[in-house]
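Please check our next protein.
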Amino acid sequence: MIAPPPAPAADAVSAFLSAFWARHPVTGSFAGVADNDHVYPDWSPEGLTASVVALAAERQALAGTLEHAERTLSGVAWPASAPLVDLRLADITLEIEIAERSGTHFHRRNPALAIGEAIFGVIALMLRRDLPLEVRWSSAARRVAAVPAFLDGARRSLTEAIPAAWRERALRECEGATILLRDGLPIWFGGASDGAAAEALAAVPEAVAAIAAYERWLSADARIDEGNDVAAGEPMLAALIRRGHWSSVSLTDWKHSLTERFADTKGRLAGMAGALAPGGWPDVEARLAADLPAPADYLASLEQCWADCKSTAESMQYVIWPESPLRFASTAPWARAAAPFLYYLPYRCPPPLVPTATHTHEVAPLMVDVAGVERVSPAMTRAQIKLNHVVHHAALGHHVQNWYAARSASRIGRVSAQDGASRIAMFIGGSLAEGWACYATDLMEEAGFLTAAERVAEQHTRLRLLARALMDIDLHAGQRSLDEVARFYEVEVGMNGAAARNEAVKNSMFPGAAIMYWLGLDGIHQARLARATRDGDRFDLRAFHQEILAMGAIPVPMIVERMNAGAAR
């Protein structure tokens, strides 16, 4: 029997994306796919089992087309090789989803995933601005009404012993979800009391009751692992790094390299901080913490820092700065009470599939003390504004990278780093998205944009990135417990107890996610060094950056492979 010819690559990628958005309707809402704005995924035991079968069949159907593309496009330069990249990314994503849905680390023992999906299914509609308000109200009404059935199905899938730390995280998010539905929705509706608004508000009591039932089950009836066994296992971690991050480096070699870099970075931090303050890093950190903008200049200071970052990046010819308007604003009134309990990000990737006139980066609103005096949140220091809110997220980092990604020849690279309820849309998008954002801060340090104290703070960030990468391996390979990881962050990195614990818990929930920051950052630096060595005086840094960004959010080692294919030609 003669095998049928492989399907055209474009058709295969279209089929993958269509099925992906159907499986991930909440992530689709964030990305700009409105078809399933009214529904949730099926995370019931029956739904997960059926999806694994469907995913396996989908991957099998893709195999012939991928094999043909590997034979014909492997040595082809970008962008002609974009179909090969997309087919690879589709295959990897299907493989990872099968592992997650058939394994025990995610849907079968992490209750925070479900409550996060439930509430961000509503928040995604509240944040969207490309659809008329009445359309979003109507979809929100249907999603709120669907919360009880979704949570019931997801709860029935939680058959494994739940780590105690994950239960704590889920209970906290239940509290935030209740606040959002009970108090935030009426604010969003702005007093509207008819039509879709009335329908949504009428569904709130039953949704809140379902969340309360989920809380009671977690508190009283769920099987809890008090020992907090959170390891995903070395085989899964190794597969995520090898396939999801497209890295040929073994776990052993990663561990060796990261350990050496950690020691070097810690020594350099001590030298930099000691030269600036007698007490070293704690003294520098205290100075930075005390440097807050005046309340009257708060939002203006963000806007000025953004403008200065853009001007400096352009003068250094780092990138061709895109036309991508952004404004800073205080957290939306409907979100303020709930946000501290949730994975509510100040900056989220603009929907890559729909036009966005002006994107909003939200920041903590001014606080009012007991005397009625306005004050800036202690978290919004000038250093945090510059390093995190502006450079890493709203300017040269994520915002510039997101603009280029949305226009990539890779259809999957356009959407893979879209923020979802608990993590980005596809694992494969992380090393470029986070690696570039960290690299952007390095660039601004090279440009002299950081003060001496901010340079020390950035060195401390590098230490934290290396620590997270190391602990990603140790935790999921079963070499350290959750408590030991948190202790490492306290003792070796200097994080306070609460921050160290939160970091460790976040690491535990998503294997392979912490290492992607350093993997991407170091991969970009190594590619730059190799290109500069090869080109000598002809090296064009801006052209190098444009080449990287044009490929979208795909694994950094795959980007380097495509660049090398172009160089070979």
Summary: The chain has two domains: 9-225, 234-525. The longest helix spans residues 45-73. Residues 322 and 400 are 7 Å apart (CA to CA). The mean pLDDT is 96.
